[in-house]
């Protein structure tokens, strides 16, 4: 993943494949908890998946502030130094 567009695309695929979400529901502005109906366990699973994809662990305090898919993309980009 070399840029935010690739990160978004990868995360969208993960959300579709791993969380059984509909592609049309997934937008950068989608709220993880309200629009996508993820719960706290799903958020942990997503953080684990991001660690698998990047090889880097997300700071739990930083991940607590994540609300939208764009927040996840930005957090992931920061992990990767983009």
Automatic annotation (TrEMBL):
Gene3D superfamilies: ACP-like. SUPFAM superfamilies: ACP-like (SSF47336). GO terms for cellular component: cytoplasm. The modification O-(pantetheine 4'-phosphoryl)serine is found at residue 40. 4'-phosphopantetheine is transferred from CoA to a specific serine of apo-ACP by AcpS. This modification is essential for activity because fatty acids are bound in thioester linkage to the sulfhydryl of the prosthetic group. Transmembrane segments: none annotated. It is found in: Cytoplasm. Pathway: Lipid metabolism; fatty acid biosynthesis. Keywords: Cytoplasm, Fatty acid biosynthesis, Fatty acid metabolism, Lipid biosynthesis, Lipid metabolism, Phosphopantetheine, Phosphoprotein. Residues 5-80 form the Carrier domain. GO terms for molecular function: acyl carrier activity. Belongs to the acyl carrier protein (ACP) family. Carrier of the growing fatty acid chain in fatty acid biosynthesis. This is Acyl carrier protein. It comes from Oleiphilus messinensis. The gene is acpP.
């Amino acid at each position: 993943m070399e840029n935010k567009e690739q990160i978004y695309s990868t995360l969208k695929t993960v959300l579709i494949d791993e969380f059984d979400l509909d592609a049309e529901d997934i937008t950068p502005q989608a709220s993880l908890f309200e629009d996508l109906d993820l719960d706290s366990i799903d958020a942990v699973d997503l953080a684990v998946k991001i660690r698998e994809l990047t090889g880097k662990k997300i700071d739990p305090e930083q991940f607590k502030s994540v609300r939208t898919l764009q927040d996840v993309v930005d957090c992931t980009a920061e992990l990767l130094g983009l």
